[in-house]
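WARN  no MSA supplied for this record, continuing single-sequence
INFO  ligand: glucose-6-phosphate
INFO  echoing inputs
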Amino acid sequence: METAEQGGGAPRGFGLGEIEMGTSATSTSGGQGGTAEQTATPLTSLKAWKSLRTHYKKLQQTHLRDLFAGDPERGERMTATAGDIFLDYSKNRITDETLKLLLKLAEQSGLRGRIDAMFRGDRINITEKRAVLHVALRAPRGASIVVDGENVVPEVHAVLDKMTDFSNRIRSREWKGYTGRPIRNVINVGIGGSDLGPVMAYEALKHYSDRDMTFRFVSNVDGTDFAEAVRDLDAAETLFIISSKTFTTLETMTNAHSARAWSVTGFDGDEKSVARHFVAVSTNAAEVAKFGIDTANMFGFWDWVGGRYSMDSAIGLSTMVAIGPENFRAMLDGFHQMDEHFRTAPFKQNLPVLLGLLTVWYADFFGAETVAVLPYEQYLKRFPAYLQQLTMESNGKHVTLEGTKVDYATGPIYWGEPGTNGQHSFYQLIHQGTRLIPCDFIAFAKTLNPLGRHHDMLMANVFAQAEALAFGKTAEQVKAEGTPDWLAPHRVFEGNRPSNTILADELTPESLGKLVALYEHSVFTQGTIWQINSFDQWGVELGKVLAQRIIPELESGGEPALEHDSSTNNLIRRYRRAKG
Ligand code: G6Q
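INFO  complex generated
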């Protein structure tokens, strides 16, 4: 858990172009250390919200079949692009009027002002009194973003240059292990934001990686995770990257100590080997030094980078070693292009804004509880898991920035699996179940692995799924096929199930950067509408504190005096008896 930094002056800074200040319903942007300057108009009292409520009642029963039949241009009109990322949002249960009202909601929620506040480095993470500047991580050399009177962009590039130098030394086999052998295995030890991004990016960009090297990721405090990661590796060729912003996280430090013990054993207990086999990514130099890692081999980042927004910081060191510095910088460039699109494109053509508003539309008016993310790209197999943290840790909040309990739904549950696998399991429920599940289909025009007809088949499936969900199959159509009456109801597809299709040219480091930034800013858009803080995560705290209390109760030699509820006491006793 990141701890809140106290105090500090108001961060200010310009440099990414002209900042136009919008009128904001929410003026708790934290510009001055996070104090609320003015009370926000409650979301449900905004004019656009009320109009959307009335509008929903009228639109509720309208079928996508009719919307398409009444507007032959719809499929071409309801689209938007950001570079090579194409969004088709025509298969959503919206009309032009819906869109107009949603865009008004964005305006009345002060989205423009909030975007400017984020890019300017205001402390919009008010509960931790921090700026939120993942956009600075991908700002080009020469840009200026000022935090506490200092331009942070040169620091960002200094770390990138240090990462570049290190990655090149590992990749060229110039960096030698303690016994003079080159490094062939890299293990990232981290959890949450210090793991999910690196894992996802490695899997997504495996095609671009050095195939003579092995990359593994250890996150779980379950010893199995570590044991399986090292069981076939030679310590003499293995480098550990200990990735932890705080360098105090229980799971990561436990795994890091086990890693050190395993590694040092491989060198007959010679502790001097640590310097050649451990590097750190952290903001906490004192703890890194205490662990025994030379701080010359530490890659820093800053408190204005949230864990789940950090895969493009030094936390991405394993990614850079895998795909090389040039590809890593291409990924940063992709992020930056989407940042600029988000910052400058009019809302009605702004992909993150549109995606964010549609999520609000379904969550709050249709009562949709989840969003399925369905990449038709095997390399994106960990993308839904990555998005779960990004979206749910960010927007799983029950109070507004002012601390008032919300009376509307906030962040939906995100989930998903790559197509076509999901089609043979859970898609049944999406097609014919009783719940509304908006879907994001993600696909690429070109495959990285051309193999006969595979890619056309894959693409045929993604287009067919979105079509089937939207238009379904009526009872008349089913009967016309000769289906007996008793079976017909089972074979009817109601349709009217919404989806977005995101289509890009090819999965490259650059397009991955754009895709991740698209969702980052969609999350921000949603959080702004809901008037919540998308950048803290107090909800993960309680369980951690309670676990610290229980650990000694499980480990103590004598029977501990237990003062939990009767269920927890009983579970602890049973576990102690069972483990012997
Ligand atoms: C992310 C969260 C959380 C964090 C982990 C790891 O936004 O803050 O997932 O990334 O708890 O924290 P450390 O990097 O400090 O070990």
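The chain has 22 helices and 13 strands.
INFO  checksum written, moving to next record
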